[in-house]
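Problem 3 from the worked examples.
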Amino acid sequence: MFGAMGLVVVLVMTPANALAFLPARVAGTSSAQQDQPDAFSRGIDAYNQSAFEEAVRWFRLAADQGSARAQFNLAVMYRTGRGVPQDQVEAARFYRLAANQGHMGAQNSLGIIYDNGEGVARDSVEAASWYTLAADQGHATAQNNLGVMHRDGRGVPQNDGAAVRWFRLAADQGFADAQNNLGFLHANGRGVPQNYVEAVRWYRLAADQGFADAQNNLGVMYGDGQGVPQNYVEAYKWFNLAAAQSHGNGATNRDLILDLMTPAQIAEGQRLAADWRPR
């Protein structure tokens, strides 16, 4: 919290991120070793040319021959309504076909739709099971999602230590959501000893990628002087960057800290924010 002229200003820290789902996209190019490589590659070519109905036709041909990547791509098409009417039940069916063949992207996606109840009955236990299969293969998004389940005790027993382990695996792959989540656990002493310096390190890694939650949280650390020397200019910079992405807490915190800054400090914070580039 900030102290100024006898007043106490409390900044809101964004909670650790909820489940993350990478933007829907079809699987990559085919190879001669895959089932129905000609059909699959033609589907990719059609998709890249926005000929979605043609892409569906080729992916379906490959999927009918057992290609897990084509099954995954058909699921994406049904989920997004590209080339076919949007149908979450069909999306779930094709995700399952691919997931049962070990396709880790499909396993993670199937976990998400069970978590959200999209095309299937909501089932946190089933969601956690699919996340685990993908996470064990090294899928960073699934590792982050499984960390959320352990942190919140949904579908698995609540276990902050397990959450830290899964977040760390994803964070070490550069996954910003997990880096922010790991920073939050370090800042709050959940599953690890409270360590503000370590929290700042993880927040910064995510904030440097442009992740708005982490930018807000890093601003809080600078504003409170936790893990770093107190620096209102740096705090303002990070709040401003988060607010520029329509981050509600970032905008609130930016406005709160203004009362503690001189005009020169505000101008410097604005300059730093304008000069910032993602890494």
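Problem 4, a separate protein:
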Amino acid sequence: MTMVMRTCACVAFLLLHPLLGAPAFSQGQPEPTPLPLLNAGEPIEDLPSTMFPPTSAFVGKLEVTINNIPRRCTATFIDSNVLLTAAHCVQENGTTTRYPIVKFTQEGGGVFNVNSKCVYVPSEWAQVTDKYFRIRHDYAFLKTATAVTGNPKDIFIGNAYRTWVTLLGYPAGGVLTALSAETQEDVLHPDPLVSVRTPQLAFAEGTSGGPWVRDSGGQILSVNSTFAIGVYDKTYMRIYGPTFDQSAVVLRNNAKNCTL
């Protein structure tokens, strides 16, 4: 049985200490943490899940290899042959080093190969050193060797705030899990960062790259990028993601038109 969860901290967040929901401090500086990629074979932890949007049919597990260790992220089709995931799932943070991609397994069992020559990441992902500002570039488009059946939803360009979304991913490599929340503007680093607040701390591991599906329209508003646990209230965390603009559209089109 699924359990519908709605997470909103609009007023409470504003009325509490300004650091609530901000990351823990390291040498006096905010320190966001990239959502960890799951080690293959790690134990599964089930979480309560919301109702799944139709887009969930196009979501799946992206398998990569980092230092010869199998790792997993979440990705989703946003076109018949283009996947969207987090940049840190396919390229080392702050460098141009790419990770070998093994395969993408769609929810329901379809397996797709990805050509490493058809992976497109914002150039800023390798150039920006600030860990918060780099979040806005934490997305990647990958072309699959074969097309998916159906009509996946595209990325969303527009106002990303005060919008109800469903976050999708595979916590700890388990079953596909959906988390419903309202998006908020990041108070430390405004546009184009977006965040949600949730008490489901275990959602972080293995969900990197999972889509944020707009409840209205079904387009993909963002992807799971980074999390931070509150300094004073450690029962909640913020999950951060990038927003998309015309530069993202260019990369998406480059992936779609890439010759395998």
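Solution to problem 4. The first strand starts at residue 25 and ends at 26. DSSP finds two helices and 19 strands in the chain.
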